[in-house]
Amino acid sequence: MGWVAVRTRQSGVPIEDISRLVGHSNTVVTETVYRHQIRPVIMQGAAAMDEIFGS
């Protein structure tokens, strides 16, 4: 199920929706389980925000 979480996050699906999709009780569980896979996606989003709004 890990690939589902990563691919949906890369597609812009909110972590709350992913958490429900994979059957976790809350987003903390999802973030803990998939932290190493989701982190690059979060970092890409942060970099994009820096480009848009400045750092």
Mean pLDDT over the residues: 80
Question: Biggest sheet, open or closed, and with what strands and sense?
Answer: none
The unreliable regions are none
- Determine the fraction of residues in helical runs and give it as a percent range: over 70%
User: Which sequence of SSEs, written as H and E, runs from N to C?
Assistant: HHH
Whole-angstrom Rg: 12 Å
In terms of structural class, how would the helical and strand content be classed? mainly alpha
Number of strands: 0
Distance between the termini: 35 Å
Shape: elongated
Number of helices: 3
Strand share of the residues?
under 5%
Task: Report on this structure.
The protein is an all-alpha fold and 55 residues long. The protein contains three helices and no strands. The protein has helices at 2-10, 15-22, 27-53. α1 runs antiparallel to α2, α1 runs parallel beside α3 and α2 runs antiparallel to α3 (27-53). The longest helix has 27 residues, at 27-53. It is elongated, with a radius of gyration of 12 Å.
